[in-house]
Amino acid sequence: MNQQFTKDEYSKFVDKKSPNSHLAKDMAWAFIVGGIICTIGQGIMNFFTARGLPKETVSSITSILLILIAVILTALDLYDSIGKRAGAGSVVPITGFANSIASPAIEYKTEGYVMGLGAKMFTVAGPVLVYGISASIVVGFIYFLMH
Amino acid sequence: MSYLTAFITGGIICAIGQILIDKTKLTSARILVAFIVAGVILTGLGIYEPIVKWGGAGATVPLTGFGYSLVKGVIKDVNSYGFLGIFTGGLKATAGGIAAAVFFSLLAGLIFRPKIKT
Amino acid sequence: MKRLGLQTVALLSAPHIIETASIVGKKEGEGPLASYFDFILEDEYWGEKSFEKTESKIAKENMAKVLQKAKKAPGDMNYVLAGDLLNQCISSCYAIRDSEIPFIGLYGACSTMVESMAVGSMLVDGGFADNVLALTSSHFCSAERQFRFPLELGNQRPPTAQWTVTGSGAAIISNEQKGPKITNVTIGKIVDMGIKDANNMGAAMAPAAADTIYAHLNETGREPNYYDLIVTGDLGYIGGDILKDLLYKQNINIKNRYNDCGILIFDKQKQDTHAGGSGCGCCGSVFAGYLYSKLKSGEYNRILLVATGALMSPTAIQQGESIAGIAHAISIEN
Description:
Chain B is mostly helical. Chain B contains 6 helices and no strands. Chain B has one domain (2-111). By secondary structure, chain C is of the alpha/beta class. Chain C is built from 10 helices and 14 strands. In chain C, α1 (51-69) packs across α2 and α5 (201-220) runs parallel beside α6. The longest helix of chain C has 20 residues, at 201-220. At the A-B interface, α2, α3, α4, α5 and α6 of A face α1, α2, α4, α5 and α6 of B.
């Protein structure tokens, strides 16, 4: 068959033929679900702040409780159903980070507890920590030089 | 009032993430990396602090807030311990979340097995 | 003359497909073709500890089923030709491990059902075998964990994504004179139009399907209306649409006799499968279940079955390679 398209032309043709995501609808879902998760976080923060705990303790407790909820929802096969609708709304909060650790832990147990569960746990979270920590070290170094 | 500002701030940050997913076809792993690094940079530039002041958990719960905690921890330890603080502060401030995520996930992995998407 | 052109051969003895069998997963068993399948799984594990083991069991049980339906013993088979999507084709290897049938392992990604029937029918036509068994399988969960993400990860599937079919198709091709015949085989060339989006496999495979159908019609001297049905393996809605357009631009109109196994197997609205089904088991189970029964009932007398495969590897995609497509075609006639 004679080539009708160059690769670039074909790519444009495919884009025209492929349905786009419903951006407005997806954003609305992300906004609402992300907003709700953060509001729950605010509730936890307000609760412990009202009991006179110091600010840093409160923020640690908030993270830990949200992570616990997310891991439970992941284990019960519910977090992926939320994510299907919510998209970034359930990916971007710390609960999404917890889901990205719990889901491979559950999935790859079949390949053993060390190289399966233990190692694959960090397929998504690993890069997040690598680049997050490294970036904070760079910022810290600049701060150190400036003071 | 704190609930409303948290809802709006968190909602907006997540909606920005959704634009990235829909428009750039980035995987969720890349989105998470982008958000934590963005949080670190914005905090370093002093832009994120006012967002946290206004939005509360709306700014600290998204992964940009994880980046914010890393930088706040580093700065605190640099102020207390000098150069060494660059390396110790970040993880100290975020230790609770990381340890919890790892341990709870281990338990979940030991007990549960995956189910088909519905 | 057996060889009609660069890609197509005519099978002068026209080997017969004497029996087929199909097993599918629960979701496929809730779709529009449910009544055509031999067995429907109740859950995604079928009593096994891992999805790879489940997929292998599906292939193994389906092989037993087709032998039983044809009233044949494993020893009657001269070859089993099989392949699947998993690395090193493990579901096929372990399915066939205990069978004692000489094994030809094939890799053609989702094109494997037709690839195995094509090679098998050539073996029979060449007089090298009396009976061969063609077999393939796929499983949604084993494919997800190899090619995409853990099942419980809360990610979003874009509208162009396809749903890997859990299922298996098996067929026995024989020199016995019963059942529909395989008359022509067109082996596809690799066609790569530079698509890199692993969530748009239909678009990656459509040019290969167009290339193979074009070559088949050209080398056999046939028009599309020679066939009652031209059916592709797993192009889905988007790939199928692109294929029709690509051929139409070459003055070949297949629009009124075209369908796709990935479109047939699911109800797009009710089952939320986005761009349609995919995987080796898609073409495999839809052919072995639905299409074969329509051929036997005489509703279709001539079909061109074109299985499409995306020769995709996660490693190559991460290194920036594009997705190579392939399509193989066989004509099946009463």
